Amino acid sequence: MATTSDKQLSVFKSIDWLTILLYIALLAFGWMSICGACYEYGQPRDLLSLADFSTRTGMQLVWIASSMVLATVIMFTDDRLFDSFAYIIYGLLMLLLLATPFLAHDIKGSMSWIKIGSFSLQPAEFAKFATALALAKFMGSYGFKLQGSWKNMAVSILLILTPMVLIIMQKETGSALVYTSLVLMLYREGLPGFVLFMGISAVAIVVVGLRFAEEPLVGEFLSLGDVLVGALILLFVLALLYAYCRPAAIRDALSADRGAGTYHSILSRRRFFIGLFAVGAIILHLSAGALVDHLAEHQRNRVQVLLGLRDDPNGVGYNVIQAKIAIGSGGLEGKGFLNGTQTKLKYVPEQETDFIFCTVGEEQGFIGSAAVLLLFLALLLRLLYVAERQPYAFGRVYGYCVFSVFFFHVLINVGMVLGLMPVIGIPLPFFSYGGSSLWGFTLLLFIFLRIDAGRSRLKR
């Protein structure tokens, strides 16, 4: 019988150390960036002053240290507990989300922070790993199939929508939108490709409809082009899927007594969906303006500024303009650690949280920014690799949830700093200041690493 020390040694050998090294490297880059964002002229540059717990740089060291302790505790926890208590964890976090608006204080219009003594916690950051566990538990059950089962699809979507709705009630739309990234996990587990394709097409059609609303002929021409091209691509993709990916099914249908009818019924259904896509695209294009009018005023303004429909350099567009100036001033090599001027003079609002990447661009330049993005790319690719090597669906589904959340955060946060994405206020993993986000990302990542380390036991 294996002793406790033998089990711990087995876990130690099975840990994915490359992912942990990437985690530590991102934490180090993140702390340096927070030092740059919070540093003020005249402040001493020695390590003791930067580690002062009365400053944000010192407090971030506390969050980093506590996150490493949390990661260590997770790695010495039996991985089977995450499977056994997945629904309980999810239920408790959903109850906490439901209670948050009644317990939280209003912070810049958001009711998502619960004050505990001198600290504040944001439960929405912890709901991500709880949702991922619940999805992994449900979709990892014996005989589960997503495609062809409306019941399984409905339950999976309900597990995702529940935290989204509860977080929107806290007036945290940005945090709620993170859960839309889980469609990537659903696609890996059997969600039809045309659903993902139609979602991407819908975004493109709405953008075209808004951008060229004042130019009817141009807008209609581009929208019609979207519809026709989208329909043709959808037809081509479906043809490939049925001709190459499932040739046996079609061949069996044709060889049966009623094969021709079955084959034609398949084609008829596909033509129906293509026609429905075209009609829906036209309706969506015509109603794009009405959809945006239903957004909150600050959200509507952000969309209009992003699409170039409105110029507001002193209002909604101020943050992005200043962030791009800071990044541009860094040039190729950057101004050096603690030598940025835009960030030191506090031109960029929220520069240590949502806009932390502008500090990387100014102090480390293009080379440093590229290095950070390459680290995130390496982490994302490693997560995909580790997810695919899981022996059971539970680990694979959870792994793809982790990948989806990290991918969304990096894409949107960096994109909004560069003016390529709307400003929705979500943190950059391991970089943005704060304990809640750092603990949330650490829990999300290290639970996956612990599940992965447990695969050695399953192979015996």
Topology:
Blueprint: H1 4-14, H2 17-38, H3 47-50, H4 56-75, H5 80-84, H6 86-103, E1 105-107, E2 110-116, E3 119-121, H7 127-139, H8 150-168, H9 173-177, H10 183-188, H11 193-211, H12 216-245, H13 247-255, H14 259-286, H15 288-293, H16 297-306, H17 318-329, H18 357-388, H19 393-417, H20 435-453, H21 455-458
Antiparallel strand pairs: 1-2, 2-3
Helix pairs in contact: 2-4, 2-18, 4-20, 6-7, 7-8, 7-19, 7-20, 11-12, 11-14, 12-14, 13-14, 17-18, 18-19, 19-20
Describe the structure in your own words.
The protein is mainly alpha-helical. It has a domain of 223 residues. 69% of the residues lie in helices and 3% in strands. It is built from 21 helices and three strands. A three-stranded antiparallel sheet has the order 1-2-3, with helices on one face. Strand 2 and strand 3 form a beta hairpin. The protein is globular, with a radius of gyration of 24 Å. About 5% of the residues have low confidence.
